[in-house]
Specification:
Elements lengths: L1 H6 L18 H23 L6 H4 L2 H56 L7 H23 L19 H26 L3 H9 L3 H30 L26 H23 L9 H20 L5 E7 L10 E2 L3 E7 L9 H4 L3 E4 L2 E4 L3 E3 L2 E4 L4 E5 L7 E8 L9 E6 L1
Helix pairs in contact: 2-4, 4-5, 5-6, 6-8, 6-9, 8-10, 9-10
């Protein structure tokens, strides 16, 4: 569909085309990004099939490869620019959705309270629950307005890499739940007229009643702060490569930066959600005290949090060069590396998670002695054969002096590999 749209793009030029500059219109940014992606896919697949090469470079394999790479890089930069514009427009309108979701939850709670009150009767606890929900919804709506340019109510859970943070989302969920539970008790205490009832409500806030919930709250908040610190230090220490995303997605809570599901994140979200549901049911049954989360379930949540933290420590790693050899095609004679030859750099971690797009791949650089060589993009149908996460192919430029030179790779995240020494002959 995207390819067909690109080929027919000239037939559908309207008020919201790729160059739309409407102030508050997200449709122009979205449409512009979609058409830029479609045009890039057509160009990449055409070059992969050998189409579109000018006659001036068609006679030289190295010249045609460099020309194709430059053309794809320019097109990829356009896609990236449109993607960032779409991401900004998406965030700007997200606050409406977050506010609507918050008030939708309030309406659902109101309906549940009304339905369950049939036969049982309306109680002060139900009124306190609705008032507490009203306060929470109003606070979140105000936060959505003040952070409307950064995703509304979701702004606190969006990380520095423009992705939803699993640790922050879990911590915020527990903070909101505990705040709601305390507001329910406060509402009941304000409405209580009997001295014994007031004493019972105050005793419901004692640590012995809610030790499990308080412990879980403390641990998940500490995990959220610690994970941010760990990730930041690992990035600065070049032990973790981070690539910013165009915009946050709900799948970020369960996946890594490359979009692959990760066990540590999935189990943390799943177990925390189950524990929250249990605590909510306990609050509904006993609205006169903090939910007494059983220690067995609390320990399960703590183990899940520890597993998530261990996963953060284990992920990533610095890219490494294992070997550098002369690239040889069928029919070539074995020979030493000379200027003008292609070399294969074999290793691991050359493409960071989330850097599989063409604009990120085009930023990869190989430093051969004092010369910086940009890694050429070699298209194939559906993707690129160069560069890859374990293999890079680059030419040795004529500016490299013969002798022993060091070869290093600089990834799209700006991380340098180890240096590998090779001999370049005349």
């Amino acid at each position: 569909m995207a390819v067909q749209e690109a080929r027919q793009g000239g037939e559908h030029i309207g008020a919201h085309g790729g160059g739309c500059t409407c102030g508050d219109c997200p449709h122009g940014a979205r449409e512009g990004h979609r058409r830029a992606v479609a045009a890039f896919l057509v160009k990449r697949d055409g070059f992969a099939a050998g189409e579109g090469l000018p006659a001036a470079v068609a006679h030289s394999a190295s010249a045609s490869r460099q020309w194709v790479s430059d053309e794809l890089t320019q097109s990829a930069d356009t896609v990236a620019e449109r993607g960032r514009a779409e991401g900004g427009a998406w965030l700007a309108r997200l606050w409406h959705r977050t506010a609507s979701a918050v008030w939708g939850g309030f309406v659902v709670l109101l309906l549940v309270q009304a339905l369950t009150a049939i036969g049982a009767g309306w109680t002060a606890a139900r009124t306190a629950g609705l008032l507490a929900a009203l306060v929470v919804a109003g606070t979140l709506s105000a936060a959505s307005w003040f952070h409307r340019a950064r995703g509304g109510a979701l702004a606190p859970v969006i990380g520095e890499d423009n992705r939803l943070s699993t640790s922050r989302a879990v911590a915020v969920s527990w903070v909101l739940f505990v705040a709601y539970a305390v507001l329910v008790l406060a509402g009941r205490l304000a409405a209580a007229s009997d001295h014994a009832e007031r004493d019972a409500l105050i005793s419901g806030l004692e640590l012995a009643r809610g030790a499990g919930v308080v412990t879980v709250l403390a641990v998940v908040c500490a995990i959220a702060v610690l994970v941010r610190r760990v990730v930041g230090l690992r990035v600065l220490g070049q032990r973790l490569q981070k690539i910013p995303a165009d915009r946050p997605r709900a799948a970020d809570l369960l996946t890594d930066d490359a979009g692959r599901g990760t066990f540590a994140d999935i189990q943390y979200v799943a177990i925390s959600a189950v524990a929250l549901v249990f605590a909510a049911v306990r609050l509904a049954r006993r609205p006169d005290q903090l939910p007494d989360l059983p220690w067995g379930l609390a320990v399960v949540v703590l183990i899940s949090a520890a597993t998530y933290l261990a996963g953060k420590y284990a992920e990533g790693g610095r890219p490494v060069i294992l070997s550098v050899v002369r690239s040889r095609e069928a029919g070539d004679l074995d020979a030493p590396i000379r200027t003008g030859d292609d070399i294969e750099i074999r290793g691991a971690g050359f493409v960071p998670p989330g850097a599989q797009t063409a604009d990120r791949l085009s930023r990869m650089v190989v430093r051969i002695g004092p010369v910086n060589v940009h890694v050429p993009l070699v298209p194939v149908t559906g993707g690129f054969s160069n560069p890859t996460d374990t293999l890079l192919t680059v030419p040795v430029p004529v500016d490299v002096e013969p002798g022993r030179v060091e070869v290093q790779v600089v990834t799209a995240a700006g991380v340098e590999t180890n240096a590998c020494v090779v001999d370049v002959t005349d």
